[in-house]
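Lab manual, section 2.4: Encoding a predicted structure.

Procedure: take the sequence of the chain (129 residues), apply the prediction step described in section 2.3, and record the output as structure tokens. A sample record is shown.
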Amino acid sequence: QLQLVESGGGDVQPGGSLRLSCTGSGSIFNSYNIGWFRQAPGKAREDREGVSSISKDGTALYADSVKGRFTISRDNARNTVYLEMNDVKPEDTAVYYCAAERGALSFRLWDPWDGMDFWGKGTLVTVSS
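Recorded output:
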């Protein structure tokens, strides 16, 4: 069983930066592919958007909406995946979740219904002036 905890959310002004962390425990973290998802205010769970994915070996994928602004990385020694958010926009406001999958799914930018194995509880990012 893998437990995931997100942190680093908060309030940020448009154009600012924020770094989110997803820290795992309870299982071998580097054996999982990790995805970041976000759920905008008022949206349902099934409307979560896949933001970025990182494979066990560090291959990264990004949604078009964040490409060039967000960077995903992982530090397996710290059991942590990061999402560096730069030049944030009001439309980036959401609860950000990380999720892990063991490798049964093809590596891609996942949708929330794809069957991720474990989910964190999320961290809220609010972009506002």
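Check your result against the sample. The first strand starts at residue 3 and ends at 7.
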